[in-house]
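Hi R.,

Here's the chain you asked about this morning:
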Amino acid sequence: MAHAVRALWPHGRAVAWRLGDRPALGLHAQGRAGFTRAAGGSGPAATARKGGPRLLGAAALALGGALGLYHTARWHLRAQDLRAERSASQLSLSSRLQLTLYQYKTCPFCSKVRAFLDFHALPYQVVEVNPVRRAEIKFSSYRKVPIVMAQEGESLQQLNDSSVIISALKTYLVSGQPLADIITYYPPMKAVNDQGKEVTEFCNKYWLMLDEKEAQRMYGGKEARTEEMKWRQWADDWLVHIISPNVYRTPAEALASFDYIVKEGNFGTVEGAMAKYVGAAAMYFISKRLKRRHHLRDDVREDLYEAANKWVAAVGKDRPFMGGQKPNLADLAVYGVLRVMEGLEAFDDLMRHTHIQPWYLRVEKAIAEAPQ
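And here is the predicted structure, written out as tokens:
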């Protein structure tokens, strides 16, 4: 049962027109000089000379405009071709991967990975792990979820830790490096946590392994890259730790949370019944201990509201997402963590009492509209 309770709490258009205007202006000047020289003439020949430069000027103006339109259309078509080439390149890379995600559906870390995979339209299979027996991941010495198994040709790679999974796969999509090489950039490291327990940490897990040109194309500047990393870590180190005390805040909320966990999870009939009642009672008391460990307020909703509003303030009013016009990895991480509360009282309170709902719905829409 100790494993079961981890299911929701696991650890140039203007340029083109100028190109058209310049010849027209030059020919107009020539036309005015010709008209002055012919002004003393008379008869049909003079009339013809008088009208000829005007016709040439009008023709030149039309030609200049057409040239401008041509260059504009050519520029737009080339831009579309480049976007199509990048999309095709990413599609080609993603089609070379066969991904299997081992998860608990209600785990915030697993939800982060699903948000990333769905937004980037990466096809994957899901294996729902039984939180009690965990037989589905008996092949792995790493016993936490999420785990992603990635088949690339003859190479099969195991990716552990939600942030490593996301960073490695994003690096793969942007750079095209072999995944077997990329995962060597995120070596595991043994450490002892505040409770004296040995844990596995991963170096560089918020860093994408890109060269200078790739990083410039993706971020545009160092500030955007640093900001993304900062808030991805914030989601892991702070936001995720507020979820459990909020969804298990009262006995009724704890029971509702475990009812949701049992419905969405991979439990046997007896296991499900035990998890719903015994697990709910256990997590109600454990959440109190977690509240003290993370120095949360007596009313943990206040910490949840404060965190949500802090995130909204960081995104700001001048951009729809922290990533600008589309979600970046920080947007997807925060969204993925919060999404596990959907359908619970804590989520409804969050939407009512903070300013996060417009941003949340924009991310939800962006993921839903990702090309499949």
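One quick note: Confidence is low (pLDDT under 50) at residues 1-6, 9-51, 55-89.

Cheers,
M.
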